[in-house]
Structure formats: C-alpha cells, structure tokens
Amino acid sequence: MKILAFSDLHMARARARDIVAASAEADLVIGAGDFCNMRQGIDEAMAMLAGITRPFVLVPGNAESLDELRGAAPAGATILHGSGVDVSGLKLFGLGHAVPETPFGQWSCDISEAEAERLLAECSVADVLVLHSPPKGLGDATSTGLSVGSTAIREAIVRIQPKLAVCGHIHDSWGQRGTIGATEVVNLGPTVNWFEVTP
C-alpha cells in the first residue's frame, strides 16, 4: 500500500497544496497532528485538506483537541486516539496529543506518560502506529539537544513492533528517521513523505 504521511501542517497553505496534489497517487493519507495553531483555525486547516479523496487517517496534535478535530475533519476521514482502524487489510493504531506534558500552557493538548501507556495498551497488533509525539530517543531532540520523546510510546513500539511508526511534534527533528527493533520510525514534518507498507 502506498502511503502519504505528514505532520505539523500548522495552517501552511503552500504545504497543504503540495499534500493535496500528491494525495491523488496515494492509497492512504496519514496526518499526524498539529493541523492548526494553538487551538485556533482548525476549520480553516481542514478546509485546506478537503481535496484529499483517498482514505484519510488523522490523530490530534497538541494544537487541537480530539473533539475539535472530530468536529472539523473532512467527511469520511478517520480520527484515531487510543483506537485503531483497518484500511484494506492494513492495521493502524493512533495516539495523538503531546506526550509527555509540554511547558506550553493551557492551550496545549497534552497527556501524561501514564495515560499514554493506558491508551496504547489497547493495541496488541498494528502494521502502522500513527503518533503525534515521537518515542524517547528517536526524532525527539530539540534545538538544544534535549530528548523530549515519550517513554510510553517507545515501550509500545518495542512491544508491538509495527512495520512503521510515524510521528511529528518536535519541529527540530523533522525528517529524522531510525529503527526501534524491526520498526522504522520517522518524524515526518509538513512535507510529502512516501512509504510502502504491505498488510
């Protein structure tokens, strides 16, 4: 299955145009959170992506709440947060929001490591994990070199061993990739990223 994946659009109109145009070639489109800015503009951000006609799977970032994303997402899109979906035999499981909590204040939609662990425990098998936050130690370095990823997410990747885990959230690590066991892990960023994953 040919997958187009991106994260952290943050209402960048030109980036959205590129993603929508490329999506015509995809079997599945994945959006890994942060479509708007600081809880503002989710309707506008989703309107920018309305031209996506392929199956579209989204998780909320920390810039939008789960309910806000559900209310604004294009018709037919699937929103995951502590839940999974099967797309043409491909098993996906998603976890949104920031893990662990950020220092950004009340606007940021964050969850604790304990809550992330509880939600990820619902998943025993997945081909693709769709995450907003990166795992601890991979794609999670800030501009000062601080590792701010999630231990619960890393432990889930080790346990589940999906073929692919995609994330975003840490802008300084966009484009970084590596492996945890047999799992390819990629911090996406707001660009067109292609993957081939078979069920």
Question: Could you please describe the fold and organization of this structure?
Answer:
- This protein is an alpha/beta fold.
- It has helices at residues 13-23, 42-48, 66-72, 113-120, 151-160; strands at residues 2-6, 28-31, 56-58, 78-79, 83-87, 90-95, 128-131, 164-167, 177-180, 183-187, 193-196.
- A six-stranded mixed beta sheet has the order 5-6-7-8-10-9. It has a five-stranded mixed beta sheet with strand order 4-3-2-1-11, with helices on one face.
- Helix 2 (42-48) packs across helix 3 and helix 4 (113-120) runs parallel beside helix 5.
- The mean pLDDT is 97.
Topology:
Blueprint lengths: L1 E5 L6 H11 L4 E4 L10 H7 L7 E3 L7 H7 L5 E2 L3 E5 L2 E6 L17 H8 L7 E4 L19 H10 L3 E4 L9 E4 L2 E5 L5 E4 L3
InterPro entries: Calcineurin-like_PHP_lpxH (IPR024654), Metallo-depent_PP-like (IPR029052), UPF0046_metallophosphoest (IPR051693)
Organism: Seohaeicola zhoushanensis
Family: Belongs to the metallophosphoesterase superfamily. YfcE family.
Q: What's a quick, concise take on this entry?
A:
The protein has helices at residues 13-23, 42-48, 66-72, 113-120, 151-160, and strands spanning 2-6, 28-31, 56-58, 78-79, 83-87, 90-95, 128-131, 164-167, 177-180, 183-187, 193-196.
Task: List key phrases describing it.
five-stranded mixed beta sheet; 22% helix; six-stranded mixed beta sheet; Calcineurin-like_PHP_lpxH; Serine/threonine protein phosphatase; Purple Acid Phosphatase, chain A, domain 2; 199 residues; alpha/beta; single chain; Metallo-depent_PP-like
